[in-house]
Amino acid sequence: MPPCYLDHNATTPLRPESAEAVSHALKQWGNPSSVHSHGRAARRIVEDARRQVAGLAAADTATVVFTSGGTEANNLALRGCGRTRILVSAVEHPSVLEAAEKIETIPVDADGVVDLDALQGMLRDGEGAVVSIMLANNETGVIQPVTRAAAIAHEAGALFHCDAVQGAGKLPLDFGALGVDMLTLSAHKIGGSKGAGALIVADHVQLASIIRGGGQERGRRSGTENVSGIAGFGAAAEQAAAEVSSAGNLSALRDMLEERVLADISGARIVAGKADRLPNTSCIALPGISAETQVMALDLAGFAVSAGSACSSGKVKPSHVLAAMGHDNDIAACAIRISLGHGNSEADTEGFIAAYRDFATRAGVTAA
Ligand code: PLP
What we know:
Blueprint: E1 4-5, H1 16-27, H2 37-56, E2 64-67, H3 70-80, E3 85-89, H4 94-97, E4 104-106, H5 116-122, E5 129-132, H6 146-155, E6 159-163, H7 175-178, E7 182-186, E8 197-201, H8 227-247, H9 250-264, E9 269-270, E10 281-285, H10 291-300, E11 303-304, H11 320-324, H12 329-332, E12 335-339, H13 346-362
Parallel strand pairs: 1-11, 3-4, 3-5, 5-6, 6-7
Antiparallel strand pairs: 2-8, 7-8, 9-10, 10-12
Helix pairs in contact: 1-8, 2-8, 9-13
This protein binds pyridoxal-5'-phosphate.
The site of pyridoxal-5'-phosphate has 14 residues, from helix 3.
């Protein structure tokens, strides 16, 4: 039996529409900057995708800057916006937390929600600052009060950036209604291929390119565009926008899974279970049993989940997100993330619960 994939926050299966768009674009091998017909065909693909990606966030087409992914878009936002103070929530993705040498972190509460009073205090003089708060967290799924945070930032004269990589496709997105100045998206989290992303930038932001060269993307991101990746991103964005209303249905599966885990496994805890969360994400801690051990055992049992955030080195460290929420290593090093997607069914979650229960019993955790 193929392994059951429950790790959609790490990456998503390629959508067939996206695969088709990638394959078509690979045959249009012109350089989109060339003026002849080969170039114009490639340019058309890029501009069609720009319209599709803008549509996912209800933004103007011209505000979309294509990048190599979410990581580059976050770096471009924070390093390219020309502000000297960078304030980010303590639970951001490393591509935000480590985007510059000097970053000030805004604390979060026990549910992982950013402390807006602390933000206000830190922004007493907000001129020259940029604030970055994610739409939803990749490890816990906790949704942040982005609109209110953006209003606080603007009142103090700061710019506001939002990493919406995990929210896209799972929550309705409206760039204008969110009230942000910059917004990050990544193709491979919504059924596109890896290596394509975008920063949506409001007209009033004077964005300087952090990659210099040929001046592509209207001078905001140099480098010949990844035409096929961008084409797949566009197709995925269009599909994700059409399906976003059904993404909420995943919460019924997720809630059932959590209820059963709590009922069947003593000591298991749902991290931020009471907070406003993405419908697909569950972060479960089994105190005393390392996340790495849990992930490996579940993999052997045929279930692909991850340990908090997927670490590129393959080594699992205690989660900085859970630590920022005040959890000690008993929780922060012992939590796994289950993230569901459209392909998952009740049979998948039932199978997962049975495998997790077996593992817990073998590991000496008594049944609840
Ligand atoms: N931001 C968040 C919240 C993420 O979860 C990720 C990827 O895991 C990224 C940014 C980075 O995106 P990419 O993989 O496209 O560089």
